Amino acid sequence: MDKKNIDWTNLGFGYIPTEKRYVSNYKDGAWDEGTMTSDANVVINECAGVLQYAQTIFEGMKAYTTEDGHIVTFRPDLNAKRMVDSAKRLEMPAFPEDRFVEAVKQVVEANAAYVPPYGSGATLYIRPYMFGSNPVIGVKPADEYQFRVFSTPVGPYFKGGAKPITIRVCDFDRAAPHGTGHIKAGLNYAMSLHAIMSAHAEGYDENMYLDAATRTKVEETGGANFIFVTKDNKVVTPKSDTILPSITRRSLIYVAKEYLGLEVEEREVYLDEVKDFAECGLCGTAAVISPVGKVVDHGREICLPSGMEEMGPITKKLYDTLTGIQMGQIEAPEGWICEI
Ligand code: PLP
Ligand code: COI
Questions:
Q1: Measuring CA to CA, which residue among 184, 169, 17 is closest to residue 85?
Q2: 186 Cβ inside 6 Å of ligand 2
């Protein structure tokens, strides 16, 4: 397989169209058999549910080239399941989990020339998504839906790759109690756009959202969960009903315990505690683990002891072990790696 002539090592996190994508339509209560298409454009009615009432959900995952040259994806079954949870919350039909995994495989296989080579630091980002496609003018769920999967080669989510970033405590809320913070709905991201633009304008890389009810507890950022490390090397990660249940975080909890022998606490984390942690990182498919060097709370600087130059030592071990598993250098737990 000849790879595309792309400057893999200098890729940012952007959209580059690849050759093929998957599409399946839902009509009269059933999904059609689905097909691969070269057409990157979607044509829908002006009154489609997604356009009027934001009825859209998505997933994010990656394909990797392993050290021995295979192409793999990481725990796609968990993305399939999370998409079903998202669909239920937005009154959309579930796309069957086995078909989801099959569609992802087909897309990666068809775009193998775009899967960045081992060691390049880049990956193929895979974006499954679903939206209400027929006209809806009264506020109600659509009757017809489209499920699609496209892929695009990407580099690091944050410029500078593994360099620690600076984030601020955000005055806007991301998710309401009993709202949609725990699902991957487009609406959660639409409402974060103003917050991220204003963070960037003030010189911060990301927002730390607090819980909307009390504004005392750490939730997550716009696109990743938090991992903290205590001064005695315990891994602490926020537990909340209003954050996205990150597959990366769930995997890191297992890696920390089972591969690194670390103690892990999944619990409520108060903003007041952040000053006492030794390390902080953002974890997610796009973010992998991006180290945080500084958190600014309304002018008050909380500088993590790990500093602004490199990842903290435990964060680095977590990063190396997780990416080692994904790239086939370290043996994976049963069922984590899906070979294409
Ligand atoms: N939190 C939010 C809001 C996200 O958008 C993402 C990205 O998918 C994550 C957390 C991380 O989740 P995962 O590790 O499953 O990619
Ligand atoms: C992902 O990590 O897959 C996401 O969807 C996060 C998004 C901010 C790119």
A1: 184
A2: no
Closest to 253 measured CA to CA, from 279, 217, 225: 225
- Catalytically annotated residue among 20, 62, 105, 184: 184
Q: Which residues, at least 6 apart from 214, have a Cβ–Cβ distance to it below 8 Å?
A: none
Distance CA 272, CA 129 (A): 37
62 given a catalytic annotation: no
**For residue 13, which atom of ligand 2 is closest to its CA?**
9
CA gap 307, 328 in Å, rounded? 30
**Could you tell me if 64 and 123 are in contact, meaning their C-beta atoms sit under 8 angstroms apart?**
yes
pTM of the model: 0.97
How many helices and strands, by DSSP H and E, does the chain display? 7, 17
Residue 300 vs residues 13, 36, 130, 167, 174: alpha-carbon distances, Å: 30, 52, 41, 12, 22
CA distance 25 to 309: 48
The CA–CA distances, whole Å, from 291 to 36, 278, 300 equal: 38, 11, 19
Strands 165-169 and 288-297: parallel
Sign of the CA dihedral with 43 first, then 47, 49, and 51 last:
positive
Ligand 1 centroid to 187 CA: how many Å?
A: 14
Ligand 2, closest atom to CA 285? 2
Q: With beta carbons less than 8 A apart as the criterion, state whether 198 and 237 touch.
A: no
Residue in the block written with tokens 């049963």: 334
Each residue's pLDDT expressed in tens, for the chain with a length of 340 residues: 789 999 999 999 999 999 999 999 999 999 999 999 999 999 999 999 999 999 999 999 999 999 999 999 999 999 999 999 999 999 999 999 999 999 999 999 999 999 999 999 999 999 999 999 999 999 999 999 999 999 999 999 988 778 999 999 999 999 999 999 999 999 999 999 999 999 999 999 999 999 999 999 999 999 999 999 999 999 999 999 999 999 999 999 999 999 999 999 999 999 999 999 999 999 999 999 999 999 999 999 999 999 999 999 999 999 999 999 999 999 999 999 999 9
